[in-house]
Amino acid sequence: MPHPALHLAIEIDGDGAHPAAWRRAAHAPGELLTPRRLARVAAVAENAGFTLVTLDDSLLPPGSGTDPVGRIGAVERAAFIAASTGVLGIAPAVATTYAEPFHISSQLASLDHVSTGRAAWVVTTEESAEAARAWGRPRVEGAEALGREARDGVRVVRDLWDSWEDDAVVRSVATSRYLDRDRLHYIDFTGETYAVKGPAIVPRPPQGRPVVIARSGLVPHDLLDIALVGGATPAEAGEAAAGAGAPLAFAEVEVALDTPRESARERIADLERHAPWEPPASHDGTRLRYTGSASGLVALLEELSRHVDGVRLHPLVLDEDLAVLSRLVLPELFVRRIAVRPLPGATLRTALGLPRPDSRFAEEAR
Fold first, then answer.
1. Cα–Cα dist 257/9, whole Å
2. At 86, is the secondary structure helix, strand, or coil?
3. Three-state SS string across 174-216, please?
4. Cα–Cα nearest to 257, from 249, 247, 265
5. N or C end of the chain, less CB within 10 A?
6. Are 44 and 292 spatial neighbours (Cβ–Cβ below 8 Å)?
7. Do 48 and 41 form a contact (C-beta atoms < 8 A)?
């Protein structure tokens, strides 16, 4: 019996998953922050057939010492990608720890409008004292407090997206009415640390709600569309996916591929002279890591398709591994029908097989 198609996502922040990836990048370090480079990477990912790209972010610089430390905000980068692509889903990481949910809601709703329904949101947290000082806010400490802020933030953002019903905007020239005020709703949220009245200031997004993605366990599963799961083997990833409870579960997979010039192990050894390749500090558990040939990765992804709904790939060096992925890995996945390309004109929810949700306020009024 065939398995459902595997959904393919890729992280494109920076130069790759390895902290010294910039040393092997196919561009000068200063070009990392240019729109041209961002558009080029997004175009390669879209043409290769990825369903979704994610853009990591934090208020603090991503590197230190001699490493490049600059980064443009993920939402701003996502908006640029939205204007320069036509099929690719776009998921910026936005932390809920200190940012106002009202602002997050407005930014992501606007991104969904700009991209005509291709926006998603990777929910993250800010754990360091330096981030709290930069925000000018008291530090949120401990897993329970960080989880509370994430849970409340996601709940408020979703409710604000719902606060405009789909047909709230009427644009009636005859009656000089732009919207039907009876189809706008106060969300009246009161949490442990703040309250939000609403409604939103941006009309309901084309998808109803942009796709919400988070590490499994960060927020309640009923607030998620995609749970990101770890696991050192496909079976472990499958166990984590089964326990996640979200509609979809994506395995986190770090990849280092053989290239025409060097083996994956040689490439890793070259970078290990400068820094170790370790999972990010914010990641809980073990990520599956693959090192080797393109055909071996195809076999691994075929095995993963029996356990999870999708994967998010973290390439060792983006400029090197993305080329191999686009030439040798994704085409083979499509030929074997392990994965499928997203269709032009479809929203990200449609590409992922997720239903478009109704506004909860419209449902309550029925």
1. 17
2. coil
3. CCCEEECHHHECCCCEECCCCEECCCCCCCCCCCCCCEEEEEC
4. 265
5. N
6. no
7. no
Nearest Cα residue to 10 out of 339, 356, 349: 339
Token look-up 């729109």 returns 35
Instruction: Kindly indicate the confidence band of residue 4, based on its pLDDT and cuts at 50, 70 and 90.
Output: confident
pLDDT of residue 1: 44
Structure tokens at 263: 């083996």
- Residues 241, 309 contacting (CB under 8 angstroms): yes
Tokens of 272: 């290990």
Supply the pLDDT for residue 366.
Answer: 63
User: Quick one: tokens of 136?
Assistant: 């000018």
Tokens of 62: 């991503």
* Nearest CA-CA partner of 320 in 362, 252, 258: 258
What's the longest Cα–Cα distance across the chain? 71
Q: 84 in helix, strand or coil?
A: helix
pLDDT in tens, 82-141: 999 999 999 999 999 999 999 999 999 999 999 999 999 999 999 999 999 988 999 999
Instruction: Give the whole-angstrom CA distance, residue 259 versus residue 273.
Output: 19
Which two three-digit tokens encode residue 154? 């996601």
> Would you call the peptide bond into 199 cis, given omega within 30 degrees of 0 as the criterion?
yes
d(CA 330, CA 320) in angstroms, rounded, equals 15
Inter-residue contact 213 to 177 (CB < 8 Å):
no
Q: Which residues contact 313 (CB under 8 A, 6 or more apart)?
A: 8, 9, 10, 11, 253, 254, 255, 325
Phi, psi (degrees; rounded to nearest 5) at 343 = -85, 140
Instruction: Extract the tokens encoding 229.
Output: 């799961």
CB 12 within 8 A of CB 52: no
Location of structure tokens 């074997």: 336
In single-letter form, the type of residue at position 80 comes to F
Question: Which residue is it, tokens 């200063």?
Answer: 30
Specify the amino acid at residue 146.
Answer: L
d(CA 233, CA 270): 26
| Confidence band, pLDDT 50/70/90 cuts, at residue 65 | low
